[in-house]
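Archive entry. Fields below.
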Amino acid sequence: MKKRDAMSRSKSWTRRQFLKTAGATAVAVGGTTGFPTILKYALGETPIKLGAVCSMSGTMSILGQDMIDASMLAEEQINAKGGIIGRKLQILARDDAGNVGLSTTRTKELIEKDKVNFLAGANLGSTVIAQLEQVLPHKNVMYIANAMSDPITAVPAFSRRMFHSDITPYMMGQTIARYTAEKLGKRWYFLMADYAWGWQNYEAYAKVLAEYKGENLGISPHPLGTKDFSPYIGKIMAANPEVLIQIAPGFDQVNAFKQLREFGAFDKMKIVTGLYMPGTIWAVGWEVIADSTGGATFYWEAPETKEVSDAFWKKFNRPPTDDALSQYEAVREICSAVERAKSMDVEKLIKAMEGHKFKWAKTEEWWRPCDHQAIQDVYILEPKKPSGQFSKYDCFKIIERKGGEILARTCEDQGHKKDAKGNWIRYQ
Amino acid sequence: MNRPERGRSPFPADLEILSGEVIPISTEVLLLQLFIGLSLGSIYVMMASGLSLIFGLMRVVNFAHGSFYMLGAYAFVFTLSLLGNFWICLIIGPIIVGLLGIFVEWSGIRPLYGTEEYNPLLLTLGLNYIFVDIIRILFGLGGIGSSVPEALDGMVNLGFMMFPKYRFFMIVAGAVVVILVWLFINKTNIGMVVRAGTKDNEMVQMLGINIKLVWRLIFGLGIALAALSGALIAPITGLVPEMGMFMVIEAFVVVVIGGMGSFMGSIVAGILVGEVIAITNLFFAQAGTVVIFVLMVIVLLATKAGLFGEG
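PREDICTED_STRUCTURE:
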């Protein structure tokens, strides 16, 4: 019995022995696995992750793919110059097909599974809201939305952790409407996509038309994704407007133009479009939009854009669209804010961005502090026979350029208020 | 801090939205709209008659019909880019897609005959997505375009109004195709087998006729009709891989209104749906999409089995 006790005692571990062995093992294992990981982090090999959920399929596919390509270009350029605060930037692209449910799922995966630091993207106001709802519970994630929408920066949707890089329908509508009322006529009829974006545009046009004492002859709202516009054309012809305002994205725009031309509408009225969609226009040929007038947020031949346009062309063999440019700026801006703040802290980043003036691919812009909207210029374009370096892509000429906060809805119209100390009240 | 009420519109309450204003409608505009309805209807007729033929004979609910419509449009534009002749491509494109349909019937649907009725439905539903993705890979997400041939460009004077030549051609082409298919079904020996097979498949087989070969032929014909619809619409619209997704729903609505499996029902319902859409858009554009579903509900409630269906 004593012998057994002696043997068992000799094989048992004292606390000192255990600590020594455990320490030695930890050093050995850590030396081969753990410490290099820590070292990697210190050396900046853990990337800063930016998730981009865009519509790479569906009716917005051209625009969504363009936004992802622009993100990749920004990533390449940033990493070529050493990354952000010593860390590489990594873009994680996801497709939501313009579907709210899918957008929610993809965003949730990016935040919770892939642990992204930032999000930038979305093609529709509805997908912005879906993505924002996923961002809100995670206080360390910031989001730059890119869809053209007014309510996303208005109370109650607005979040202090969200900025909006694209132009708003109201800003675009105000610009084109003023030009149209001054130069093309004041008896208008509207052919527009029957969803939030279309109606947000309409608000701006209707206000300007009332201001210019013009005549609103009517509206034909059509479902998004309409292929055949002929059922709407009889009513447009009956209204006999001086100007037909066409407001629809993607292929709806070129389909409407094709069929309006087919029915001879171009001979009877001026056709104005809220926003030219270059991607779809390139797909079907510039002749479809000939003799029209419309808006854009940039032009790739303009001096302020040429450098980025050329880089995009070199990488993807096509020039960027306006959605690509605003996504490019979104990625560059959030990375620039990290560099300036020298921190990933959300509070410091918000401070670095609010009121900041920037110029990445367009004329100078700035983040309006009240609603985090990028205040920017709008270009008025007319189609022309393609020429120049970009061949079939270079099918517009710049007629005019308007800009400034005056085109945007006021902070008060957006529902933003200041407290007694003069600070903007934030609800979320 | 009081949060503003969620869902409150950020827009000013006094925003005036004009959508129900009265625009005087002349007889010419009304006629224009009726002809537009006919041109729309011609596409619906071809789509729905193809679906109806397949269902009537084979009891296969072909959910891939919309993607065959899309394939027809792409095949037309692709062959046009190679050959440059609108008329030849308008025939070749649908034939190619019709042959693809025969292959699909032979390789995919035939093994499912005699199994549960929903199996071919699920198969064609899956094919729908496969075809869309194949076109995305081959032609890209961006879509492609085509244009109306010179001979059909511009307007034609109908005596009482001007109307786009190409739309008029669509109406004539639709009418010619429907007459040819009607003659095929009613005046040929194969058509007689098709009609007999629709009534009683087993009896036809007992007479020593290879009914499965007839099924294959009819499946190919139905698919070619969908492809021809796509080819006809291609010059006046941009082509995207998803273009058939909603079209197949509309085609099913037409088939249901006309009566499942009824060729005559598809013709009447196709024209009816085209006209209802055109006229509704003239007076109340907001209801232009939903009106065909309302029509379907009314017809079903009133007739139980569609206008020409056998309840």
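CURATOR_NOTE: Chain A touches chain B through 61 residues (CB under 8 Å).
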